[in-house]
Amino acid sequence: MSLGNNLDTLYRQVIMDHYKNPRNRGEFEGDSVTVNMNNPTCGDRIQLQMQVEDDKISAAKFVGEGCSISLASASMMTQAVKGLTVEEALKMSQIFSDMMQGKDYDDSTFDLGDIEALQGVSKFPARIKCATLAWKAMEKGIQSENE
């Protein structure tokens, strides 16, 4: 068994863990930035909520339904952006977008952790929208907050 196969297996396990045991699943009571998005090609739907205070994302939660990649990505994203400034969250989203498009990306700015398990999705163009849905919702929420 090659190292590549072992890595693919590990990445699949990380994705399935986030899918079966999503982090930050739920809704906030009270004020939050709320964004609803869907991916009509496969039926993924997400409602993302973020609490933004002093230009920092203090908390993020999501509810939704969809494939394992979509929901695992939402779980990973909500973990990753907590505590980041709005600018840092947008930069991380750009790094993630580059990763999904198979481009070189700078992973020195952030510890991407579990998010790197999604890099294999770039080999399956039809699944990229699944992986990026929560990230696009986060970007949209930040943009609406700054308008």
TrEMBL record:
Domain spans labelled NIF system FeS cluster assembly NifU N-terminal: 11-130
Stored InterPro entries: NIF_FeS_clus_asmbl_NifU_N (IPR002871)
Superkingdom of the organism of origin: Bacteria
One Pfam family named in its UniProt record: NifU_N
NCBIfam families (alphabetical): SUF_scaf_2 (TIGR01994)
Entry-linked PANTHER family: IRON-SULFUR CLUSTER ASSEMBLY ENZYME NIFU HOMOLOG (PTHR10093)
Protein name according to UniProt: SUF system NifU family Fe-S cluster assembly protein
Taxonomic source organism: Alkalihalobacterium chitinilyticum
Upper lineage: Bacteria, Bacillati, Bacillota, Bacilli, Bacillales
